[in-house]
Amino acid sequence: MVMFDMLIKNGKVVFPDKVQTTNIGVKDGRIVAIGAELAGADSVIDAAGQYVFPGMIDVHVHFSDPGRDYWEGFCTGSQMMAAGGVTTFFDMPLNGIPSTVNKEALYLKSDRGKAESYTDFALWGGLVPGNEEDLAELAEEGVIGFKAFLSTTGNKEFENVDDITLLNGMKIIAGLGKVLALHSESGPITDWLAARKIEAGHVTADDYLETRPVAAEAEAVQRALYYAEVTGCPLHFVHISSHEAITKIEEAKKKGMDVTVETCPHYLLFNHEALRGYGPVAKCAPPLRKQDEQEKLIKLLIDQKFDMISSDHSPCTSDLKDSAVYNIFQAWGGISGGQFSFLSMMELALKYEIPFEQIANITALNPAERFGLKAKGKIAEGYDADFILVSTDEPFTVSEDNFFAKNKISLYIGHTFPCRINSTINRGKLLFHDGRIQAAGPEGEWIKPVQQIEIKS
Question: Model's pTM, two decimal places?
């Protein structure tokens, strides 16, 4: 008797609090049974010797669709995510044309996602000067939250917020029951330092690092926290790269503030020597820190001070990362690496003996709970059948051939991970297996938060 659409047998299943060898039964895209005696399915996957994780939720990616899909679009980007074990991603509101700062732009983007994405996705809205009146409508239409910059963006369609816009926006977002994600670097500090370097003709990798010091991140984080105290706005700090910033966030959490924080794998696996050695391909903002700061970040990861891990996948075309560019300030700042976030966490887990349950929580459960994805984030009955099947005894070396991004430009090219993703399953459908995309076409869904928006007085 066929009871399930899919049966995953004999896998070492990673639950939020334990790892247990068992079977998982899937029906209509959901997990309907977990147990040792399950049998009867249209499709059976023998996961013996493999770990079965919940699919990763990457809350921070930049697919420049619509308008700049030649950098990365939903089609290639979502396949890349599937190859990396990501079953749900959150697309940021900038880099596409138009930026997602009103309802019309949101639906241009969502239509592209629904037509092209192989995995499930959610969409951020933007907070920029002049769009405060659009925030309520964006929230009603299903954005996952809002994103703003405290440093200069270089994007005229998505400018950084001034202090008054930030305060007004925070108050509105708090009333909408949403979260504000912040790129937290002090614009005055970074702009002033960069102008002095460029004027003096000092444009090396070392000069770039010096224009975006830890102090710029720490100042912006502290200012945002003060504003959140005044407005009551929930905050999510993106790509935090310093121990000092985490110290301030930890103090806020102890006071009971509604704050979460992410970091990215490139801050944990690499340091400033990569920018010095590889040039623009390793340029990002905040920058890769020196080795001593990198070591502090790894300790913070081990001590569970980061709520979640995201890729900040930020692709571009090769001309914008030209290694011949002498002026590092002219190169595009962003790491293309969304395919390798989960593998990076596995590498760190194996090296530093971090429990696999902890990895599952920071890559899936915590982002699901933070952003109201009630059917995602863990392996349990009633949840979406989103899985990663991983071998820890097979290495994987990144090459242009197995990197699924549109533009094969990445700091990870040539890196060898001590583990391999064998399969990715999204809502019971096999997306990726044995190095290939298996899905016949894009069937990803636009995921919106479950909770209702409550207007607060």
Answer: 0.96
